[in-house]
């Protein structure tokens, strides 16, 4: 973990290279506090940080999210940056919600061998999550329009991404999800599945399958 001064220096270098954002916030937090903020639970108790109506004392609203992800093993070139911006600008013209979030990886993450754990993405510079989030009860036509935008944007970015995806950002429309999520580790993960869950109790549309 770096210091606050290091973070400010890194941010200043980024701003110098690409221009200033509309706002900047750099605040140190303990890990638990940071996770509460990440979950939308700033200032809430653990009890309150649950869905309203689903858990006693829960206060969080249910949302509908459309999402896709990428793993970036190399920096985006100029054409890739333009493709990202084009997707954002198109969504702004449409007037609906839509974002991309980049998480910096590399560093310590990439010091672990790719076959050492279930997590295979050990060459990555960053992950990207593209999404559009709505309140519960949103009209089907609105979701269809957003999904069309998301699919088109994602397709335009294929030349600039690794083809891998982050398994914690489940994408039900991803056709090659087994390879994208788990890569060369999939065969071993199937063996673990067969040993510890031979009856496939832990199963959903994109869970690790039993060996065929």
Keywords:
212 residues, Vanillyl-alcohol Oxidase, Chain A, domain 3, alpha+beta, globular, 2 domains, 3 strands
Order of helices and strands: HHEHEEHHH
Q: Please state roughly what percent of the residues sit in beta strands, choosing from under 5%, 5-15%, 15-25%, 25-35%, 35-45% or over 45%.
A: 5-15%
Task: Return the structural class.
Answer: alpha+beta
Q: Tell me roughly what share of residues is in helical segments.
A: 25-40%
Q: Please give the largest β-sheet.
A: 3 strands, antiparallel
Looking at the overall shape, the CATH architecture of the largest domain is: 3-Layer(aba) Sandwich
**CA-CA gap between termini:** 43 Å
Task: Give the mean pLDDT.
Answer: 93
Q: Work out the number of β strands.
A: 3
Low-confidence runs: none
